[in-house]
Amino acid sequence: MEWAFAGKALHPEAASHACALVRQLCLQRSAALATLVPPDETRGGGGASSSNEQDSFGDDATRPAEPPPESPATGRFKRAANLVKTQVRVVNAFHSAGDAVVRGETRARGVVAEILPADLLVNAAEGGAPGAANELADWAAYLAAANAVGTWRELSIARDDAAAAGLDDGAGIGGGDDDAATSLPAMTAEAGAKALDAILALTAPRRRDAATAFIPRATGIGGADDDDDLWLESPALFDANEAATAAENSTPPPAARVFAVPVPIAPPASPNERAMPVADFARLLQRAIEARRAELGVRARGITVHAEGVRGVVGEGARPIAAAGQVMLELAASSDVDVDVDASRDALVQLLSDAIKGDLPWDVAVAGPGGGGGAAAHPPDRGTIHRAHHALEVQSADGSDPEIVRATCRRVCWPSLLLEAAEIEADLGGGGRAVAERVADASRGLHAMFSTRETRWLLQLQRRGELRAIASGVVQP
User: Fold this and answer.
1) What is the pLDDT of residues 250-293, one digit of tens each?
2) Cα angle 334, 339, 342; round to 5
3) Beta-carbon neighbour count of residue 20 at 10 Å?
4) How far apart are CA 383 and CA 235, in angstroms?
5) Which helix (H) or strand (E) holds 207?
6) What pLDDT is attached to residue 74?
7) With CB atoms counted within 10 Å of each terminal CB, which end of the chain scores lower, N or C?
8) Global model pTM greater than 0.85
C-alpha cells in the first residue's frame, strides 16, 4: 500500500492491489462466522451438508422441555416464549469469541477508509483503472454495512449483559431527562434497524454512479449506459485488460489457489484433545472436495483438486493456530474436457466457497475411498467426523482472473452477512420476513449462494424471529 502515497501516477496500480488485499481479508468472514455455532447447540458430527447429516440446528438437536398447553392459544404462546427464552443466541458466541471474529473485515475497513488517500479512487479511474475504483467503492459500501452490524452487536451484548445483571432495561445512558430515548434496548433497536436497512439496500440493484458517495457522480465512473448492477457483480468492475479478455472469450481455463489456516468449527471435546496435523487435514480436505465434485455432476467434470500442508504464518492478523501450518488448495478446470467454460467456472467457485465455509461431505472424506475409512471395518463415528470439520481462514487468494475471486467473495460474504441480517431482524421482534424473502427471490439469485447448512441456519433464525414476535404479542399465534 506504500504505492498509494508515491504519487498520482501509481494510484491505478495501488487500487488494483488494494482490491486483491480486501478480497482476501473479507474471505475470512466465513471462517469467523462458521466457528460461532453456540457450543451447547453443537453435536458430535454437525456441520457437514451431506444428505445423511444434520447441522447444529438440526431436528434432533436438544430442545427445552415445553409446558403442556392450558388451551390451544395459550399453549402456542407458552411454547413460543419458552423457546425464545432458552435458545442460545448467536450473539453470545460472538461475545465469547472476542476481537478475533471480524479481524479480516476490520483490517479491510482500515485499508479502505483510513490508509488509502481520499483522491485515490478518482485518480485510479482517470488513470486507467475504473474497474478497481468501482470495486473499492463496492467494498466500502459492504464494509459500512458490516460495521453497522458491529455497532448493533456491541449494543446488544451490553443490553443482554445488563439484563443478566438484573439492571433495569429502561435505564438510560448518560443521564438527563431523555433517558427513555437513550436506553440500551432503544439504542440497540435503532442500531439494528439501521444495520438491517444497510444490508437490504446492498442487496438491491442500483445505478453504478449513484451507488455510493465514495465516487462522486461527476467523475463519470460507471458501467456502460448506466445500467443497473449488483454489489460486486457488474462489468463496471472490469478494467481494460479483463474486459477485453472477457469480450474475446479468451479467458484461460478457470483456476484458483488459496492459502488458508484450517479453523475447527467447534471446540475440542476435551482440553487434552490435540489439533489435527495440517498434513492430515489437507488429505481429508482434498477427499471432501472430490466428494462434493462428484455430487455436482457433469459441470464439475475435469476440475482437478490438490491440497497439501505448507509452512504456517505468524505476525499481525494471524491466529495463534496459524503458526502450526496452513493449507495450500489448488483447483483447476481442464481445457481438454468438453464442458461449458461458464459451467466449469461456476462449479469451481462453488467447490472453493464450500471449502472455505467448511460445508463439505466430511463423512465421505473420513470414511475414505472404500467407504470404510481404509483399514477400518466400520464407518467412522460422528465424533471423528466432527473433529474433521473445519472452515478455512483465507490468508491469500488468487485466480486465473480477478472475477474468480470476486465470485468466491460473493458466495462467501453474502450468506454470512444475510445471516447476521436475519439475526438482527429476529432480535427486533417484529416478526419481519424481509431477509428470507430477499434470499428466496429467484430473480435476485441470492439463494444459490447459500450452502445447505446456511439455508437451515437462515430458516432457524426466521423461526426464532416469528416465535419472538408471538411471545411479545406483536403477532397473534
Assistant:
1) 667 899 999 999 988 876 767 777 778 999 999 999 999 999 99
2) 90
3) 16
4) 46
5) strand 206-207
6) 41
7) N
8) no
